Amino acid sequence: MMQIAANSARETDEELMARFQAGDSAAMEEIFARFQKPLFNFFYRMVSRRETAEDLVQETFLKLCRFGHTFCGSNAKFTTWLYSVAGNQCRDYLRHSARRPEMPVADLEESYSEDPMEIPPPAQDSPVEEHLIRMEIRQELKSAIKSLPEKERTAIVLREYHGLEYKEIAEVLGCPIGSVKVLIFRARQRLRERLKDMAA
Amino acid sequence: MKCKKAGILISAFADGELSPREQSALERHISACAACAREMQEITELRRDMALWAEEAPSEWLAQSFSHKLRELADEGCAPVPQKVRLRWGVLGPATAVFATAMLLIVIVLHNQTPPPVTREAAKSHRTATQHAQDRQAANPQAIGGEAQGTGQTPTTERHVIPPKIVRHRHARIHVAVRPARDTNVKPETPDVTGPSPGYADLGSRGGYTGPAPGDNIADRTTSGVAPIAGADEVKDNLGEAGLAMNETVERLRGTLQQAVDLLVSKPPLPANGGTESHGGDIP
Predict the structure, then answer these.
(1) Which one of A54, A133, A156, A164 would you mutate to disrupt binding with B, by most B Cβ within 10 Å of its Cβ?
(2) Where in the sequence is the domain holding A140, given as residue range(s)?
(3) Would the ipTM clear 0.90, i.e. be above it?
(4) Would the pTM of this model clear 0.80, i.e. be above it?
């Protein structure tokens, strides 16, 4: 058991995908274990709803199962391909929800997500006042990111929270690197203005 | 370097995405531009604030649900999708489109070949003829009952419930007897007295047709033991003078036919009213 765990830890994402393409469904479970948390946070920052984010994570991995044979490890990095699938999934959801807005339910869920029970408890060495400030900043940031245009939001989230390089973001969004630079620059400008307004 | 371009470079510089040449150019600009230096400071603060939104963990439901779905997919054999399935669908796609187009064309052609809708005049004519037939039947309801008595079949009270189709057959047989009358120029004066069934009302109204029904045969009727036509008195009561004349003609014709049959089979002639009631009885 320990040996299997050590082998799977050494395996790269691309090797795991190659195993899955060969018909080993256990490889997909390993991929899921590695990427469920990053993907959940990506979707959560994009849609601001936990339940929706979990549904989107599941849908993305099911897509990976169905269309995993289209991935070519020699041409692309797995994370880039994974976030491309996730970005498409998110874009479909956002466009669909824009056509059929569910404002009352969305507001209700948002109010639930603001429940202090969801916020991670403060560290033992940090005072309560600092924890409250962090909560406030987090809430403002969440609202500000939600107000960004879809492409800017995707670019800034992938850069700030998932550490993707400009080149990888360009592959995910399907645009030139120069456009990614502008998208991130504009996103930061809007966020700064929005946070200033909130602070005022 | 302008401040607008410097802003983009500042953002990229914070992410470590600048080339050494761009970086040195930006540093020269920032050292000379206080606004861009302040922007650099603000972006650093923004990134620090954004880092406060730490990663969160999804619920346990997600892993359980996905594991369950993955097992389902494995049972269905859907993971991963074989490459050849995709290629086959690539061929089937255009074929399906061609088939759908062909079916659409067939439907359009068939639709154009359907008969035109019933015109208003035709519908009105049909309604008028039906109304006439119903009126005639209401004016003389005994006509059908008389025939029933004459043929020795079901009583009058029960005849009213016989479906129109059966009544139509009986009238057809009466018209067999009438046909020679037309040959001898004995035309019924009151054709309404025969009281044709609603099914024959259209024929009567259009051409006054009183001939036999298709497939009817006098010889068959005679040799198969079909009951004779009603007696003279009943016919007179029910059909009037014209009916009596027709009945006489029928009797004459029947006598002639009987003689012919007798000659052929060398059997004694049937009595005038001695026919059996069973249509499918043996030939005597």
Answers:
(1) A54
(2) 130-200
(3) no
(4) no
